[in-house]
Amino acid sequence: MLADVLGRPLRNLRLSVTDRCNLRCEYCMPEEEYGWLPREDLLHFEEISSLVDIFIAQGVDRIRLTGGEPLLRRDLATLVGMVAAKPGLNDLALTTNGVLLAEQIDALAAAGLRRITVSLDTLHADRFKALTRADELARVHEGLAAARRVFPAHFKIDTVVIKGVNDDELADLIEYGKTMGAEVRFIEYMDVGGATKWGPERVVSRADILDRLSARYGAIAPVIEHSSAPADRYTLPDGTIFGIISSTTQPFCSSCDRSRLTADGMWYLCLYATQGLDLRAALRNGASTGDLASMIRSGWQQRTDRGAEDRLALGDRRAFVSMNSLKKDPHLEMHTRGG
Ligand code: SF4
Q1: Binding site membership of 305 for ligand 1 (Cβ less than 6 Å)
Q2: Is the pLDDT of residue 227 over 90?
Q3: What is the pTM of this model?
């Protein structure tokens, strides 16, 4: 088994298919202007498929399609079909903001998509508009209803919790998840690249989330399970399960088996990595399958990344990357490397 310096296997690949997004969420894309990856640099589906084969041969067995907003990538269902058919792949999931989901979900499911996660940060239309700078909550609800219909047992809702913005909606979102048959996961606001409005005072910690939900529901029990998934899961007294991704206050780098491939073929070994490996250049310069496999193996074997733990150890913590650096290199943006 391929393992990094800290003994972590390479299993999960987050595959970004576009850096474009149709929302402008405050915690991810708060600026007015963005520089985009040149279109000619985006990997073609055949190139993605070849790289996926090589990743699978190195141990990857779970892939999540991300963006930007992945449903903006034209003919995404074609790519889903190409990836879903790969022997050795045990899971193919997608994270979306839901705006375009209702119109694409049947084609995605028919192509072999197995699970879906929809981002939903608020149930209030006015808040949604303020948070995302788009009046699209109604279409997101259509997408959520479609997800409930098509992926009834494999459907999650992700909520980034920000103090003073939506932290009064925790129980409402849990109740909404119950009606939709979806597991809700609360994500601590992270100081990743692009989160230029981040500040520690805006984070609602896992401990806070549990306190607030306990006050409403009573005793909350942790779900005991061995998993490298980022969410710790909990059970409410009525059996409802929800998750918390506490990357900011209680990072889980020690079990992190995820890497990220951007839409233009840069491979990053950590959400906080400032350097990546340019697999597109190697591929387009004629590297063989063996050469690419060696690059991936050697990159992973040298991996020491523990970005979120390093950030936590800093103590005094502000936005991770300056606006100037983000403007010079869009690869540092969370929306480029798939969150
Ligand atoms: S910060 Fe980096 S090493 Fe830690 S969990 Fe996230 S991606 Fe993995």
Answers
A1: yes
A2: no
A3: 0.95
